[in-house]
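In the design runs reported in the main text, the only information available to the sequence generator was the tokenized backbone. The following block is the verbatim input for one such run; it is reproduced so that readers can re-run the procedure and compare outputs position by position.
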């Protein structure tokens, strides 16, 4: 059971500044990866966690500039 309605969450997300939205997406991806990890073999789970961490913020910012 969700504590917050999905539509309310999405409405709030649309109001975020770009940098905050990027941070939100990063954290949401990490949460999703952690949930998926619970049902995977340990080695595969560790690799998925690394993949879902994304790239460092300064690297992402540079890509955005390009």
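Verbatim output:
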């Amino acid at each position: 059971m969700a504590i917050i309605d999905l539509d309310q969450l999405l409405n709030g997300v649309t109001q975020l500044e770009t940098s905050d939205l990027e941070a939100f997406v990063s954290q949401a991806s990490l949460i999703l990866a952690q949930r998926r990890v619970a049902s995977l073999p340990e080695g595969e789970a560790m690799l998925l966690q690394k993949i879902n961490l994304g790239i460092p913020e300064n690297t992402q910012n540079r890509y955005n500039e390009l």
